[in-house]
Amino acid sequence: MKISRNLTGNISDMTTAIGDFLTGARGDRSGALSVLNDILGPLPAPGQPSMLEHRAEEMGMLPLIRTWQERDNTSVADESTIHALFRPAELQRFSSQTGLSDRAAMNILRDLLPSAIRHRAINARAGWQQHTAHTDATAQRAAGE
Length: 145
Prior knowledge:
By secondary structure, this protein is mainly α. The protein is built from seven helices and no strands.
């Protein structure tokens, strides 16, 4: 029985690895970022932390998120961090929507999440600056009229 389960598990692991290799799942990031951004929801804004920031704060991991937001070339996230920040249903959604095996999805999330958080922070700041500049210009026009 034990040998049979080990053999079945090994065959399943090998089949998954072969499938991931043939489909390019280990290196394909084409749709993964879109799915990740959809799961993460709206960009953070002043006074309106993102879903991920809320979860990180609850888990005592907000300093890690801030590091990712502020620095380029951070290391990959570890698997325990991914499990702490995402619910099982979100991980399953990421896997199914990208067409990746659970293992390939986890590997891509570990690699992609820190840089995605960095880019989301940069985009959010750019949005705040544009909004502030627009608001300031509108206020100046109103004051001059």
